[in-house]
Backbone:
């Protein structure tokens, strides 16, 4: 995540699963042309006696709920649906979509022809354990499209498959009239929704920027890590500050699929967008699965490391600038709550530990990368191990712990690198000492400024980490110039 805004808290109500066999429930979701109401018909593969909506506020937006036949009574208690103990096989309910949309924090940034309402507010469903899935078919008027992160099924009309996921936050569902594009990058088709804001946006420039930053991430191991993520671009204008960045906020959500949400200042140029690191950072997150928040320093750290490495490989940063950014980040991490370990700093109650959370994992990523390259004589790198991880384990439908992730990466490396680094640093106060490593890489530092030495023990490794991909670099340069 790019800094600041707290992620929505997740409230998961408990429910009882009647069957342990993988099953598919079938939902039909209908919306009216003015997007004021949403009707759901839910047909269950077997009688269910409990459904949940992930938001504890969802009940506020329910206008009506009933079973499909008279003997299937559904009551509401404390904003929860109470189904008969013997279960029901079908139900219908109506959601006040207009009101739910108004409560979305981005509502004021959007033009009225498009709205965002998370399925957490309108999707009442059994638990998705043991391979249970829901096939959702949308029935939409001509002027209304939908964007959700769920797996799109082939066939006529918008039909999706919802299955178990880490549910890291509330995914967006976008409804209305917006610019939808399918953008092909190596190994993936991005499902990009360019929303209409209060002021106009140059969508062609935005698409070029998304294309370039997603391509950056394919420079790690030749393909984008997630086959078909939902990308939602929200134009937020330039706010009140003159110094506002081109991309003030971004985040990744793993809820029913993978979403990358990017807020952009549409008044800024394509050149300014291409110089901003946010999208490269967010897309880099997809190289790892959702890592439990207790170990967030790993996911943030790897994204910080890769955002700088990839922006150098794509020619947006020169080598010296990238190493300087990495050095500056490490220094900020070093000064941030030095009495705490990375695991302690990641505890949600800790104040002023954010830079340790963002950079200690980056230092460990650099250490792992150099060790892998050094041990293999340049035949294996962090890119290779993450590429193998993508093949075996991504996208993942669950949260991973830090030790579990590092153990899996070691399984995929020719010799263990990650778990030893975890044991050495995860619960150790302070910041990983990278001074010796910098010295060996030929990165001299004086008065906070990095200098690159020609002669250095690990010169070849230093150069290979940031090696520019010439084709990408010339394409990016052309984009920025036009
Ligand atoms: Zn991040």
Residues:
């Amino acid at each position: 995540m790019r800094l600041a805004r707290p992620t929505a808290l997740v409230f998961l109500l408990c429910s009882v699963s009647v069957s342990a066999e993988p099953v598919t429930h079938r939902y039909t979701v209908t919306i009216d042309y003015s997007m004021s109401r949403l009707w759901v018909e839910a047909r269950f593969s077997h009688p269910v006696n409990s459904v949940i909506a992930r938001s504890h506020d969802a009940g506020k937006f329910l206008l009506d709920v009933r079973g499909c036949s008279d003997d299937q009574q559904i009551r509401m208690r404390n904003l929860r649906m109470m189904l008969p103990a013997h279960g029901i096989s079908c139900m219908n309910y109506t959601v006040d979509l207009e009101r739910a949309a108004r409560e979305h924090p981005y509502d004021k940034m959007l033009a009225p022809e498009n709205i965002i309402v998370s399925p957490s507010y309108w999707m009442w469903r059994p638990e998705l354990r043991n391979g249970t899935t829901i096939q959702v078919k949308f029935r939409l008027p001509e002027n209304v499209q939908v964007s959700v992160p769920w797996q799109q099924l082939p066939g006529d009309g918008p039909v999706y498959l919802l299955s178990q996921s880490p549910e890291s936050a509330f995914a967006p569902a976008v409804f209305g009239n917006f610019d939808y594009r399918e953008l092909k990058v190596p190994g993936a088709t991005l499902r990009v929704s360019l929303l209409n804001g209060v002021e106009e946006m140059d969508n062609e420039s935005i698409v070029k920027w998304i294309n370039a930053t997603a391509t950056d991430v394919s420079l790690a191991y030749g393909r984008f890590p997630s086959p078909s993520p939902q990308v939602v671009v929200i134009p937020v204008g330039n706010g009140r500050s003159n110094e506002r960045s081109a991309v003030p906020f971004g985040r990744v959500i793993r809820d029913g699929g993978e979403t990358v949400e990017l807020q952009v200042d549409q008044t800024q140029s394509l050149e300014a967008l291409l110089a901003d690191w946010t999208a490269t950072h967010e897309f880099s997150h997809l190289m790892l699965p959702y890592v439990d928040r207790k170990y967030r320093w790993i996911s943030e750290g790897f994204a910080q490391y890769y955002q700088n490495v990839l922006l150098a490989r794509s020619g947006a940063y020169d080598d010296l600038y990238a190493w300087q950014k990495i050095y500056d980040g490490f220094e900020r991490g070093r000064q941030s709550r030095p009495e705490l370990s990375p695991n302690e700093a990641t505890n949600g109650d800790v104040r002023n530990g954010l830079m340790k959370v963002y950079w200690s994992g980056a230092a460990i990523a650099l250490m792992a990368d150099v060790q892998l390259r050094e041990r293999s004589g340049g035949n294996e790198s962090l890119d290779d191990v993450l590429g193998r991880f993508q093949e075996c384990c991504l996208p993942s439908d669950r949260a991973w712990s830090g030790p579990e992730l590092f153990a899996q990466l070691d399984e995929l490396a020719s010799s263990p690198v990650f778990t030893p680094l975890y044991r050495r640093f995860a619960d150790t106060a302070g910041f990983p000492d990278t001074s010796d490593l910098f010295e060996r890489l030929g990165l001299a530092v004086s008065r906070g400024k990095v200098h690159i030495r020609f002669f250095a023990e690990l010169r070849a490794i230093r150069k290979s980490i940031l090696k520019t991909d010439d084709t990408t670099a010339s394409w990016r340069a052309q984009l920025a110039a036009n």
